[in-house]
């Protein structure tokens, strides 16, 4: 999942970026409201964490403009203000949740999972395809009785494939949701990471779950039923 962080305080922005990246998210950072609005309208994000008080354009105005442009990804507002009227203003502008500073990264991650679940009503904290199970909270993956050791990027790629399963996901969609804005489009990194996943998920003796769909991308599909 790809998240946009809009925060003008460098230390807070760095803390958010590190914490979200460690949780497996691809993260882009905007230092002011104008940059946040530009990034949010030019890249596909799954969610946004947005400070209220920012230069150039405040967070409430950013969210209001995003909603006017029919951009519906969930937004969590951050603020050092604790007044009821400030929270109401953000929620009325189209924010999905509100978190007061200082905050715990654990709570932010839980709220982020919650707004993403509301965005995808069919989703839950555990995803399963055949004998492959992914736990979003524990950040673990099992196939059958075997625990798989995945990097954060591999985990994010597998989550995307499992969310779409059995439909294929294009390379473009993978890049947009698993990598951040600094991705080098001239590399073959998507194929490389698909191969990493295949090595771990489709081990010898097990029916393959990860399939190449020629001309489209990649799909995670359960093996065909047998009589």
What gross morphology would you assign? elongated
Count of runs of 4 or more consecutive helical residues? 8
Can you list the strand order of the major beta sheet? 2-1-3-4-5
What order do the SSEs take from the amino end to the carboxyl end, as H and E? EHEHEHEHEHEEEEHEHHEE
Based on the structure given, which CATH architecture of the largest domain is correct? 3-Layer(aba) Sandwich
Q: How many β-strand stretches?
A: 12
Q: Can you describe this structure in just a few lines?
A:
This protein is of the alpha/beta class and about 230 residues long. The protein has helices at about 10-20, 35-40, 60-70, 85-95, 105-120, 150-165, 170-180, 190-200; strands at about 1-5, 25-30, 45-50, 75-80, 95-100, 125-130, 130-135, 140-145, 145-150, 170, 210-215, 215-220. Helix 2 (about 35-40) runs parallel beside helix 3 (about 60-70) and helix 6 packs across helix 8 (about 190-200).
How does this structure look, described?
The chain has 2 domains: 2-119, Rossmann fold; 126-220, Winged helix-like DNA-binding domain superfamily/Winged helix DNA-binding domain (Arc Repressor Mutant, subunit A). With 227 residues, it is α/β, with parallel strands linked by helices. The model has no long low-confidence stretch (mean pLDDT 89). The strands form 3 sheets. Strands 2-1-3-4-5 form a 5-stranded parallel β-sheet, with helices on both faces. A 4-stranded antiparallel β-sheet has the order 6-7-8-9, covered by helices on one side. It contains 8 helices and 12 strands. Helix 2 (33-42) packs parallel to helix 3 (59-68) and helix 6 (152-164) crosses helix 8.
